[in-house]
Write a structure and sequence with these properties.
Layout lengths: L7 E2 L1 H8 L6 E4 L9 H7 L6 E2 L2 H5 L14 H10 L8 E4 L5 H12 L5 E4 L2 H7 L25 E2 L1 H11 L1 E4 L3 H5 L16 E2 L14 H10 L8 E4 L5 H11 L6 E3 L2 H5 L16
Parallel strand pairs: 1-5, 2-3, 2-4, 4-5, 6-10, 7-8, 7-9, 9-10
Helix pairs in contact: 5-10
């Protein structure tokens, strides 16, 4: 079972840690799918000592056949994390604009890269503001870090593995909105529908406004979708950002073995020979 204290941190607790003799490294990963870049929000105000890290260019590889947010090159990721001051074995806290998606992908990426001590600020920047805690526009100059990126510390699915999981080797969760899963609409990718055999569990059913319910509630919600003990489980979304949040929720529910289909739907439909299912059921 993964302990909540190893995955999430509340604003008041984080404030005390920042004021301690050994503060964690803070990464601001605010991001939007469309609209002004997160760096603009960071420039207006951020947590004291936080360094901005761009999800699109630092934490993910360039978009293409592998998806819109593929795995980063390990060397490039290591350079970006070191520039942000990430040190081997030293705690990191990531936060975003409140929905928790970009922060969850940052959390997942660091853990996939072998950096274990990383948590997500529960509720993100809005929760920090709501707690009346200080912010600043001052940009820190962190000392270079020495983190070593060792990929593979969290399980990853490619398209073939995702297909096998959905076909009966386990359970593949599609955490996009129900209308996208059913194939009624697709605002981003060129083809609508879902991976045949995947089960739909839209993100709002297990997280609301970037905050997760208690572990027992999460277990009940995942169980209702078919997640059973001992059955392999993976998740995908449009490009592996929302699904990373699902993997975090599964960790909170006691399933640290949950796998992420990083390429997700944007990778699946890049190959026209891959089958596509539509409708409200897993499909065939």
């Amino acid at each position: 079972m993964s302990g909540t204290e190893d995955l999430l941190v509340e604003p008041d607790r984080l404030a005390a840690e920042i004021d301690s003799a050994t503060p964690p490294t803070l990464l601001d990963v605010r991001w939007r799918l469309t609209g002004p870049p997160g760096r603009d929000d960071y420039a207006v105000g951020h947590l004291p000592g936080a360094v901005f890290v761009d999800l699109d260019t630092a934490l993910c590889g360039p978009p293409g056949h592998a998806g819109r947010h593929p795995l980063p090159d390990p060397g490039a990721l290591q350079a970006a994390l070191r520039a942000a001051g990430v040190r081997s074995g030293h705690p990191v806290v990531v936060y975003d604009g409140g929905d928790g998606m970009a922060a969850a992908r940052a959390w997942w990426t660091l853990r996939w890269a072998g950096h274990r001590p990383v948590r997500l600020l529960h509720g993100g920047y809005p929760a920090w503001l709501a707690a009346g805690l200080p912010t600043t526009a001052e940009v820190p100059r962190p000392a270079p870090g020495d983190v070593e990126v060792n990929p593979g510390a969290l399980p990853v699915l490619d398209a073939a593995a995702a297909a096998r999981l959905a076909a009966g080797e386990g359970l593949l969760l599609d955490v996009r909105a129900a209308a996208r899963y059913r194939g009624e609409t697709e605002p981003i990718d060129p083809v609508a529908g879902h991976v045949p055999g995947a089960v739909n569990l839209p993100a709002p059913e297990y997280v609301a406004d970037g905050r997760f319910p208690a572990a027992e509630v999460l277990r009940e919600r995942f169980a209702a979708a078919g997640v059973t003990e001992g059955t392999p489980v993976g998740a995908y979304c449009g490009s592996g950002v929302t699904a990373a949040q699902a993997v975090l929720a599964l960790h909170l529910a006691g399933r640290p073995d949950a796998a992420l289909y990083v390429g997700s739907w944007s990778n699946w439909v890049a190959d026209p020979d891959r089958p596509v299912a539509t409708g409200p059921t897993p499909g065939a």
